[in-house]
Amino acid sequence: MAECVECGAELDLHDDLEVGEIVDCSTCGTELEVLEANPPVLDRAPELEEDWGE
Amino acid sequence: MRFGLLYSRIRRDEKLLLNEIRDRGHEVSKIDVRKQRFGMTEAPEDIAGCDLVLDRCLATSRSKYITEFVDAYDVPVVNDPDVAAVCADKAKNSLALANAGVPTPETEVTFTKEAALETIEDFGYPCVLKPVIGSWGRLMAKIDSRSAAEAILEHKETLGHYEHKVFYIQEFVEKPGRDIRVLATDGEPVAAMVRSSEHWLTNAAKGATTEAFELDEEAERLVEEASDAVGGGLLGVDLMETGVDEEGDPSGYTVHEVNHTVEFKALNDAVDIDVPAVVVDWLESKAEAEVPA
Q1: Which CATH number goes with the domain that contains B255?
Q2: B209-212 and B2-7: which strand pairing?
Q3: Residue B88 counted as domain residue
Q4: How high is the pLDDT of residue B251?
Q5: What secondary structure letter does DSSP report for B212?
Q6: Radius of gyration from C-alpha coordinates of chain B
Q7: Shortest Cα distance from A10 to chain B (angstroms)?
């Protein structure tokens, strides 16, 4: 089980976590990046950059 | 087969592709470009030995350079760096479409706010000002008056990165509240959807609603021509309808953009086609074609 690094809430993570994936904390809304999948380690995701897109 | 997937953020699109590639028994090397070092001659370990590398970088700046490097290492890369260079820049994108004779909105580029204002006054109001680099409908301006034009141009010239001093001005197309996104592989449509909104921006990232769309022959032809114009590959071709006939069917199209690191999760949700499966079919065929006989 992992906690949100922003608000400390317990995160409800799905089973097929992928390193590099972004999950939202359902309590505070912070975007968290999955650094390790098993066991899950998450940190704040990078802020949106101007050249991001498709 | 061994695929490489270049990324800095795994979106649902990448997850769909990863699952599809793995389910078929292929190896996949996830390559976080933030951690890589790219030398001039020798491929990083994660890239060397890949049958094909797929660029799924979220950052256009990274995408443009990384595809160059992977290509230089003689590892097949989707999309080709020349395609990425054209698609990443709206001015180059428009030039490629216009030079290929693909109908595309009337566009001019200027380098000073004075020249930009002349173009805007000639186009008339409303018209559209877009950044040459950018996506998801961000920093797009629909200009309704001269005073708005003056303010936006001054802000861009004063506050912007140097790329914001390349003023990309486009006619405003009176589309019927929607545009069309087509995912295509080397010009062959995989699936298409319309993106509808009451806002003039109809990007899915801006909250537009999506619905499957059946392409007619003319749209299919334009998708193929637009894909060829930028060099082909795995692309998202965006079209607008320039009118509708009495039965509500499109009477003409204009192609406003081709995207080279195309997102397709909204498309996959909107259509009955298994989009990642078709994409991986195509990636397999590309990789097979690269293997020396």
Answers
A1: 3.30.470.20
A2: unpaired
A3: no
A4: 86
A5: E
A6: 20
A7: 22
Instruction: Return the SS3 of B28.
Output: strand
Range of the domain at B194: 178-281
Cβ atoms of B174 and B168 closer than 8 Å:
no
My answer on whether B277 and B191 are in the same domain is yes
CB contacts < 8 Å between A and B, how many? 58
CATH 2.20.28.160 describes domain A1-44:
yes
Scanning every residue of chain A, which has its alpha carbon at the shortest distance from the alpha carbon of B88? A54
Question: B163: domain CATH number?
Answer: 3.30.1490.20
User: Residue A53: which of B8, B15, B135 has the nearest Cβ?
Assistant: B135
DSSP codes, A2-18? -B-TTT-PBP---TT--
> Min CA distance, B86 vs chain A (Å)?
13
Per-residue pLDDT tens over the stretch B103-158? 999 999 999 999 999 999 999 999 999 999 989 989 999 999 999 999 999 999 99
Q: Hey, are the CB atoms on A52 and B262 less than 8 Å from each other?
A: no
pTM (2 decimals)? 0.94
Whole-angstrom distance, CA of residue B213 vs CA of residue A53: 23
Q: Which of A20, A50, A51 sits opposite B9 (nearest CB)?
A: A20
Best residue of A21, A23, A48, A54 to probe chain B, by most B CBs closer than 10 Å:
A54
Contact (Cβ atoms closer than 8 angstroms) between residue B131 and residue B180: no
pLDDT, tens digit (0-9, with 9 covering 90-100), for B258-292: 999 999 999 999 999 999 999 999 999 999 998 76
